[in-house]
Specification:
The complex is a heterodimer of chains A (193) and B (487). In chain A, 25% of the residues lie in helices and 25% in strands. The longest helix of chain A is centred in the middle third of the chain and has 12 residues. Chain B is an alpha+beta fold. Chain B folds into 2 domains: 312 residues, Cytochrome-c3 Hydrogenase, chain B (Orthogonal Bundle); 110 residues, Alpha-Beta Plaits (2-Layer Sandwich). Chain B is 46% helix and 13% strand. In chain B, strand 8 and strand 9 form a beta hairpin. Chain B is elongated. Classes of the chains: A alpha/beta (193), B alpha+beta (487). At the A-B interface, strand 1, strand 4 and helix 3 of A face helix 2, helix 9, strand 6, helix 12 and strand 11 of B.
Chain lengths: 193, 487
């Protein structure tokens, strides 16, 4: 029950992100597509086929020990890049205090990737959200349903071809017309600089 | 007969719905509980009732415009969210806020941590049945909100930190009243502790509830005090210091057992640490500016454009007929409708209507507009003559600033191409911002990693095996805010 007050001194520095990226490339030479570096944050772009093995390696390898999945999210490069989607894993090691980013490429024809819930239990809701927002299917996920949007929602909002504003708001919601009319009435009171 | 009795006393699992409109769920969280008698067998949380699409909205706004969205996420501690966003964007832009701004941010960040923990303690205690703590905590929370009002004029949704610093400097009066608060506050913490720390009901309701081991807590992605209650000293303020956290001395409290009581103790000790940090920052607060000197990424101070925009300076604007192509841009931008003229023919300004607001000046693509200092009320011929004279250095600089300012607001500051993830320690845990930039003024992808979302995902793990009443204690202990969870 007692709570300790502890003073933290960095004990071991861990590895440099570029070293980690090299390690991944050595172990999985066929899967690594590219290594990028921006503001001292290194990301390793990989093919999606063996993502589970790569994540398992990053989590279990004693020298790496990426025990904390900071974030998992999707990115849609519609019309910008091929393949269209990317699933981004931001990993951090609480023991060694180093981090790396892994980006797995997912094509538009087959938007699916293997789940990592067996490695990090916290990935569960992240993956459900990614499925909800991008329509990327996580294979072997224990409970893949929509999470933030209702079950009967159509489309995946964070895709770039999904509109920001509904096309027929006036038709769907009559209250909107009222608001528009009212704003026209009050236009003379708008501050004009 | 025996068979009948067996059937009557046959036990079966019951499906109970809890929420979304339930006072103890801290917002609109819906839980579907499968219970066997009083024991929880399965919990299915449903979230998303407060989803506003902040990530999608962020992609349509400039970096500067998206800042107010962040304090609509965790409305209990909006200051921390703002700081997290600003730190992330600053790293993307590669600008460094001045020392004073960093210290002020640390002060307000810790103030918001105290106010968040106060609200957490108040509602958590109220849920479990200690009513008086609620009243005590809100007394101090009100005090902090008043201090927020003093510093920036808002109580809840503050938007006080800005990209590259803070909005305005703090006054000595504010620092004095804050210092008074830090002197008074430790005795107030003792007041709460006398009420519940050794209270038998409190101990019975919290000890051994929602136990989670260190390894499992990390595996579930728990962060903040919820993780530290299990004995993991993961604090981003220490691991990846931002603002002035590497210049102040503080400790990270961690628990041992990983139950609700340890997490409660952790937060109570964080009160004291935050109080300590604020005092140190006030003592060390260096003088200097509060906004970074990066004209491409931050707004100019208003007096930089003063010589041009101030109405009493009596500037007149004159359109050079030789340069004007008659595109109509200035015509549409003029708020006083002082510009007239046909399409594709040179426009003219009605000098008696002109407000000297310089809107036409910044919108003109062909630089056909000329500023005539002190030319108000003169005739067109005279203005044409005066417009040929060169401008003074002061006004030249001010007009440059004005055009930069206009471009900054209209198009947004351009970020370099790249992607980065920056995490900060908000009261609830790790708040991460992941930006993908394509080199334009708006983020290509803005991802928010909110601690409440992950914590809500771990609720089934914490609740299963306990009694129905302990669900309430577990919701309280993970410090859930649904605005942040649903985004």
């Amino acid at each position: 029950m007692a709570v300790r007050l502890i003073k933290m001194v960095p004990i071991h520095k861990g590895l440099e992100p570029t070293e980690i990226a090299e390690k991944i490339k050595e172990t999985f030479p066929d899967d690594v597509v590219e290594i990028t570096n921006f503001r001292d944050q290194v990301s390793v772009i990989v093919k999606k086929d063996r993502i589970l093995k790569i994540c398992r390696y990053l989590h279990d390898e004693p020298a790496l020990c990426f025990d904390h999945l900071q974030d998992l999210c999707g990115v849609d490069y519609h019309g910008k890049k091929e393949p269209r989607f990317e699933v981004v894993y931001n990993l951090y090691s609480i023991r060694y205090r180093h981090k790396i980013r892994v980006r797995a490429q997912v094509t538009a024809d087959d938007p699916s990737i293997k789940t990592v819930t067996s490695i990090w239990a916290g990935a569960d809701w992240h993956e459900r959200e990614c499925f909800d927002m991008f329509g990327i299917v996580f294979k072997e996920h224990p409970d893949l349903r929509r999470i933030l949007l209702p079950e009967d929602w159509e489309g995946h909002p964070l895709r770039k071809d999904y509109p920001l504003k509904g096309p027929e708001l006036e038709k769907d919601w009559p209250g909107f017309v009222e608001v528009l009319n009212r704003s026209k009435e009050l236009e003379e009171f708008v501050w004009k600089g | 007969m025996e068979q009948q009795v067996e059937r009557i006393f046959e036990t079966r699992e019951l499906n109970v719905n809890m929420g979304p409109q339930h006072p103890a769920t801290h917002g609109v969280l819906r839980l579907v509980l499968d219970i066997d008698g009083e024991t929880i067998v399965k919990v299915t949380p449903y979230v998303g009732y407060l989803h506003r699409g902040i990530e999608k909205l962020g992609e349509s706004l400039t970096y500067f415009q998206a800042l107010p969205l962040t304090d609509r996420m965790d409305y209990i501690a909006s200051m921390s969210n703002n700081i997290g966003y600003c730190v992330a964007v600053e790293k993307l832009f590669d600008i460094e806020p001045p020392e004073r701004a960093k210290f002020i941010r640390t002060i307000v960040g810790e103030m918001s941590r105290i106010s968040n923990h106060l609200l957490w303690l108040a509602t958590h205690a109220l849920d479990i049945g200690a009513m008086t703590v609620f009243l005590y905590c809100f007394r101090e929370r009100e005090w902090i909100l008043e201090l927020f009002e003093k510093i920036c004029g808002a109580r809840l949704t503050v938007t006080y930190p800005r990209i590259g610093g803070v909005k305005n400097d703090v006054s000595q009066e504010f620092l004095d009243s804050l210092y008074k608060f830090t002197e008074e506050f430790p005795s107030r913490i003792l007041e709460y502790e006398t009420l519940i720390d050794q209270n038998r009901i409190w101990l019975k309701r919290t000890i051994g509830i929602g136990v989670i081991s260190a390894e499992e807590a990390i595996n579930w992605g728990l962060t903040g005090p919820t993780l530290r209650g299990s004995g993991v000293a993961y604090d981003i303020r220490k691991h990846m210091p931002y603002d002035a956290y590497d210049k102040v001395d503080f400790e990270v409290p961690v628990g041992i057992e990983g139950d609700t009581y340890d997490r409660y103790r952790c937060r109570m000790l964080e009160f004291r640490q935050s109080n300590n940090i604020i005092r140190q920052c006030i003592e060390k607060l260096p003088p200097g500016p509060v906004m970074a000197d990066a004209p491409k990424f931050t707004l100019h101070p208003k007096d930089a454009m003063f010589p041009v925009t101030h109405p009493t300076k009596e500037h007149a604007f004159y359109i050079d007929e030789k340069v004007c192509k008659g595109c109509g841009m200035c015509l549409r931008a003029c708020p006083a409708k002082a510009i007239f003229g046909e399409k594709k023919k040179p426009h003219k300004i009605k000098q008696e209507l002109c407000l000297s607001c310089a809107n036409c000046y910044v919108t003109c693509k062909f630089k056909s507009l000329k500023i005539v200092p002190g030319g108000k009320g003169l005739s067109d011929e005279k203005l044409a003559e005066l417009a040929k004279a060169p401008l003074s250095e002061e006004i030249k600089k001010a007009t440059e600033h004005l055009v930069e300012h206009f471009n900054f607001v209209k198009k947004g500051a351009r970020a370099p191409e790249g992607e980065l993830y920056v995490a900060t320690e908000v009261p609830k845990g790790e708040l991460g911002f992941y930006f993908v930039s394509d080199g334009s003024g708006k983020p290509y992808r803005m991802r928010l990693r909110s601690p409440s979302f992950i914590h809500a995902g771990a609720l089934p793990r914490l609740c299963v095996g306990h009694l129905v009443a302990d669900v309430i204690a577990n919701i309280g202990t993970i410090d859930l805010v649904l605005g942040e969870c649903d985004r």
